[in-house]
Specification:
By secondary structure, the chain is α+β, with helices and mostly antiparallel strands. It has five helices and nine strands; from the N terminus they run αβββαβββαβββαα.
Length: 263
Amino acid sequence: MKKLLSIMTAIVLTLAVAMPVMAAGEATAKTYGDVKDITNSDTIVGENPTTNATNGKVTGAEVTTITYSAASLKTIDAGSDEGATEGRTGGYAWIGIQVSVPEGYKAKLEDDVAYQKEEVDTDNTIDRYFGVSLAKLTEQVEKGNSTLTYTKTFTWEKKDGTEEPKDSYKQTIKVVINLGGVTLYEGKDATAESKPVWTKTIYETKKAEVEAAKAEANKKQPTTTNKKVKDKTPGTGVENVYAIAGLVLAVTLAGAVVLNKRK
């Protein structure tokens, strides 16, 4: 009976210790920020860009992707006060996204070369902008890509910072812009009636040119080499005859030496 009581006591103590640990684990479960498009009207021609967002947002995940399948954009002019404030320099159209910061967390400050301020707005969100230009679109086609893709990784860190080590985790956000879905105009005064510098037709023409140039380059590559490969297979050529003769001579001389010693 005493043994049974001891076993039951041990089980109860084990459960008492385990329960707080489980609760703590549930409390620190990772949550990820949602993403939505906030591309400014000064860089949009016509309707807002078409994305994969549902009800205006892409639900957060460890890797969150917002895809722009169609966008009619125009570059902003240099010297724009609003653009300078937001880090949107002239000569680019700027795709904008807004990331919601997980509750109870903050963004860890990071030093990036490009405009990447980490200030969190009063509604607990962070805004980011990604440049689109004729040069960038052309570069991606020449690389054989069908999209212009930007990747930004955030580190979410516990606000109070009381946990040791600090509770933090990462979320990667990908902004994917379909090259064939972009129509790009240059200048703030551009309208749908202006002549675009990039369209689906221009993209397809450029893509065909790149593929044709690659195919032509492959044609010029020799399919076989003219270098003589040394035959490593033993044969009965002249070199082997000399080698055999030398071996016979060496054996004969060795035999002669032995016979002389016996005499």
